[in-house]
Amino acid sequence: MRFGKQESGQPHVNQPGLSTAPASVTETHISTLFFVGERVYKMRKPVQFGFLDFRRRINRRTDCEREVTLNRRLAPDVYIGVADLVLEGEPIDHMVVMRRMPETRCLALLARQGAVLGPWLRQVAEALVSFHKEAERSPEISAGASDDALRSIWQDSFAETSSYVGTILDGTRENEIRRLVGRWLDGRGPLLDARIASGGVCDGHGDLQAEDIFCIDDGVRILDCIEFSDRLRHCDVCADVTFLAMDLERLGRVEAAIRFLGDYQELADDRFPPTLVHHYLACHAYVRAKVACLRSAQGADGAEAEAKGLQTLALDHLRRARVKLVLVGGLPGCGKSTLAAGIAAAAGLTVLRSDAIRRGVSEPAAEAATTAGGTPGYCEGRYHPTVTATVYQELLRRAEHSLGLGESVVLDASWIAAPWREAARSVADRTSSDFIELRCDANPEDAAARVTRRLSEHADLSEATPEVGVAMGRSMDPWPSAIVIDTSMSEPREAVAQALDALERSDEMTSSVKQDPYL
User: Fold this and answer.
1) Does 411 have pLDDT greater than 90?
2) Confidence (pTM)
3) Which of 196, 293, 298, 419 has the fewest C-beta atoms under 10 angstroms from its C-beta?
4) Closest C-alpha to 213, from 202, 224, 204
5) Residue 100 near residue 207, CB atoms below 8 Å
6) Using an 8 Å Cβ cutoff, are 132 and 237 in contact?
7) Please, are residues 241 and 260 in contact by the beta-carbon 8 Å criterion?
8) DSSP assignments along 201-251, one per residue
9) E-assigned strand segments in 70-218
10) pLDDT tens digit string along 205-217?
11) Who contacts 510 (Cβ-Cβ below 8 Å, separation ≥6)?
12) What DSSP line would sit under 358-427, residue for residue?
């Protein structure tokens, strides 16, 4: 065995010293690793998958060289070089030569042992923030995080897993995964474009697994980036770090995953939209499910069960990634604003309120029509039909913008007119968002008392009087598609709980309104 040409300025190969660590062999679906003394020798298998072709020796050598070059960005003292495997003076194959890391300091092992991970993950976050800041960027690299690129990655994974659906992978779950992926991608173009425009896409790592991170006293070592596919390495920094978060969750360390993502966002000053986090978590889980299927076909013990678990994890995050448009309506005093705020706080949604927009609308002709007492009557002042039309148009415009950026939205308004509800439904359709309608219902006496109290205390943006509420009730279009929420109960949290239960039971919202630990 001899070593190939070393890159200028990089570490040279030294004869490995003796080590008390036992020799061992480990296989992945594309490589065989030999652990000998203080070194690791990694040799490619002559395999072909949809994402790589290692059947020719020249391709295996090129890939070894790229692995060394790319991984020296994060672990320059670990990647020593490329060695030629020689038979009778001629090279017959090639191996990446690495410094052997202490197995007891592997992040995955520490996670399984229940060790405290926070300080180590903070170091990982610091290393990745620095790495991403200096990583290469270009228009070509940015294209790797476009909707077309993400769609292609998913389609390639689906092509690789198709033969395993119904045997290893559950067919019903698979159908839902493929439907939710398409729906998410159909509506998130503006969000992905905004991430690209912000500079959040770089030549990253692409495969951050806890098995490849080592917690050494003089600092963490992050190994084994993707070298065989530029497009899988060209990604949003959110995609890069969520790979490790997914892996930590797979290992049962959800709280550590959440803390790690929080540390990275804090250090990088980059807030990740929750829907983007969940989509990338799902994407990574599914990629690992695909790899587990391939390993199962090669006879790896436990790979089939691992693939099933990862498919389930991918589906859970795709459900959580769904973007939602929730209408909360009803007559004045019915408690819709309190309910809207409660839902938003519990489920991480953004509230847009018609009364806040109405206060900013100037309509001289309508203002002149206000009753002599100074309080607008029904269809007067800021409740004039022309003002109302302006308010709803602006409400829906803001909602569409937020939904396109991946923000789930609650729209707090009366929604007494069916055409405006249909307009809201059209916004949800255009942005591939789930559409949920909630109508608040309180007995008239309670509603009138609430209205009178807030007017006397100047405690709310709404200017509606009890008389306006009665008139609105007479003109309200039927709303059979809404879920009715009883807001007569004394404690607002009871109505919020009722609403969240109703959302959870609705077909479009199954499993997506439970408390999300990533929010």
Assistant:
1) yes
2) 0.85
3) 419
4) 224
5) no
6) yes
7) yes
8) EEE--S---GGGEEEETTEEEE-----S-HHHHEEEHHHHHHHHHHHHHHT
9) 79-87, 90-99, 201-203, 213-216
10) 999 999 999 999 9
11) 319, 504
12) HHT---HHHHHTS-TTSS--TTSGGGSHHHHHHHHHHHHHHHHHHHHTT--EEEES---SHHHHHHHHHH
Residue with tokens 């298998």: 45
* 229-252 average pLDDT score: 96
Q: Mean pLDDT throughout 147-170?
A: 96
pLDDT digits (tens, 9 = 90+) for 51-99: 888 999 999 999 999 999 999 999 999 999 999 999 988 899 999 999 9
Residues facing residue 90 across a β-bridge? 87
Give φ, ψ of 431 to 5 degrees: -105, 10
Instruction: Classify burial at 24, counting beta carbons within 10 Å of its beta carbon; exposed 0-12, middle 13-18, buried 19 or more.
Output: exposed
Nearest-angstrom CA–CA distance, 165 and 444: 55
- Give the position of tokens 């991970």: 117
Those residues whose C-beta lies under 8 Å from the C-beta of residue 78, and which sit 6 or more positions away, are 71, 98, 99, 101, 221, 223
Span of 107-121, 262-276, 310-324, 337-351 with lowest mean pLDDT: 337-351
- For 383, residues 6+ apart whose C-beta sits below 8 A from its C-beta are 358, 376, 377, 463, 464, 468
Burial 341-355 (b: 16+ CB within 10 A, else e): bbbbebbbbebbbbb
d(CA 396, CA 170): 39
When mean pLDDT is compared over 379-388, 458-467, 499-508, the highest value belongs to 379-388
